[in-house]
Specification:
Blueprint (H helix, E strand, L loop, with lengths): L6 H9 L6 H11 L3 H16 L2 E13 L25 H13 L4 E6 L8 H10 L4 H14 L3 E5 L5 H7 L5 E3 L24 H14 L3 E7 L5 H18 L2 E8 L16 H14 L5 E2 L19 E5 L16 H10 L3 E5 L12 H8 L10 H4 L1
Helix pairs in contact: 1-2, 1-3, 2-9, 3-10, 8-9, 9-10
The chain binds iron/sulfur cluster.
Length: 389
């Protein structure tokens, strides 16, 4: 039997270009869990090598199109019931007015978010769709995206498990789409687990949709929710699922790592958020497993420590809105963009605004969308500094 090499030696080899296997990533986690600085150092080096010292964000406006949802995840406070004050069902007029506000604040991304196929469960959703002239949420999303695009915003839709033909239609107006894998483990859908009442979170269903997006050539944002009862090995397995999808289709534009935050009005209200060292170790491992990937953490979910994640391998802060709340984490407002920029500078990084598509994926979108972006893009296909002045 061959002798296993040490984790320190593995890290040296990874610094020199070795792609670790699942088993090697698990070994590193197990052996270096308490010496995480070694891990951060290599993750930082790989980020520097592949992404330099630029860190990006997308200046977004969050369109909470409809937050009724067919499913129930134990951690979700975004989902509303029809009688709740937080219910959101935007009319076409609401969208048009929001688009004007978004332009006023120089947002470039129109983030459209909905619950999972609300019309399958709620008469209220069917009535809302009918009143606006549609029979499905996906049809409405297509129309809403057109409104936003015509006004000079760039849509990015995150509406759960869309069909292949729905995604194909949305591709005409959306520069990218989003679907969190959350985790590849079926265990999290078992009785008493957070996805028990959320069939759309079945990992195989989500993987199939990410495959469909790959076949359609759609740049996808995906990622994991960390700290919902998974094991570290399930997280590592999930990262390899994403890595393989990207190796096959080349369409995963970023991996979001979101640290679970308990919400008062949910069944997981008393569950703790993941320990910061565990979360940061996962972030660093992600960089080791996918050295060239865009890796993002949301700064509002680590408000006191987010700059330190730059030293664990991230290169993006995701969407930050100067005007709308984070409806998924309403108790965590986004930091001011100026402050994020100062914090990045203090850590030796330049903050730049990107579109909801990363520059290296621009060739995926149709010439019309590309030429619209070019009007406000710089030579690197980031949002020009002049536009944001
Ligand atoms: S996380 Fe998404 S699918 Fe789950 S309940 Fe909330 S809106 Fe529905």
């Amino acid at each position: 039997m061959s002798k296993l090499i040490s984790s320190s030696e593995l890290l040296n080899r990874i610094s020199d270009g070795l792609n670790p296997t699942y088993e090697e990533a698990c070994q590193i986690y197990l052996e270096l869990e308490n010496e995480s600085d070694k891990l951060y150092k290599v993750a930082n080096l790989l980020r520097e090598k592949n992404k330099g010292n630029t860190v990006t964000y997308s200046r977004k406006f969050f369109f909470n199109l409809i937050n009724l949802c067919r499913d129930t995840c134990s951690y979700c406070t975004y989902k509303s019931e029809p009688n709740q004050a937080k219910l959101s069902m935007l009319s076409k007029q609401d969208i048009k007015e929001s688009v004007k506000l978004a332009k006023k604040f120089k947002c470039t991304e129109a983030l459209f978010v909905t619950g999972e196929r609300p019309e399958q469960k709620y008469q209220e959703a069917r009535d809302w769709l009918k009143k606006n002239g549609f029979s499905t949420t996906a049809e409405y999303l297509i129309h809403a995206s057109e409104i936003a695009l015509d006004a000079g915003l760039f849509p990015h839709t995150n509406a759960g498990n869309l069909t292949k033909s729905e995604m194909s239609e949305l591709k005409k107006t959306n520069v990218s789409l989003g679907l969190m894998l959350e985790n590849s483990s079926n265990r999290l859908s078992q009785d008493g687990m957070p996805h028990q009442f959320a069939p759309s979170k079945n990992p195989m269903a989500r993987i199939k949709i990410l495959e469909n997006a790959g076949e359609l050539g759609i740049p996808m944002t995906t990622g994991l929710l960390v700290g919902i009862g998974e094991t570290p090995f399930e997280i590592i397995d999930s990262l390899y699922v994403i890595k393989k999808l990207h190796e096959r289709y080349g369409h995963v534009q970023e991996v979001i790592l979101q640290n679970f935050q308990p919400k008062l009005d949910t069944p997981m209200a008393s569950s703790a958020s993941p320990h910061e060292r565990y979360f940061k170790t996962i972030v660093a491992l992600t960089r080791l497993i996918m050295p060239e990937m865009n890796i993002q953490i949301p700064p509002n979910l680590s408000p006191d420590s987010y700059p330190s994640f730059l030293g664990a391998g991230i290169n993006d802060w995701g969407g930050i809105s100067p005007v709308t709340p984070d409806f998924v984490n309403p108790e965590h407002s986004w930091p001011k963009i100026d402050q994020v920029e100062r914090n990045c500078l203090d850590a030796g990084f330049h903050l730049r605004a990107r579109f909801p598509i990363y520059p290296e994926f621009v060739s995926f979108v149709n010439p019309d969308l590309r030429s619209r972006m070019l009007e406000i893009a710089d030579t690197q296909f980031l949002v020009s500094k002049e536009y944001l002045k």
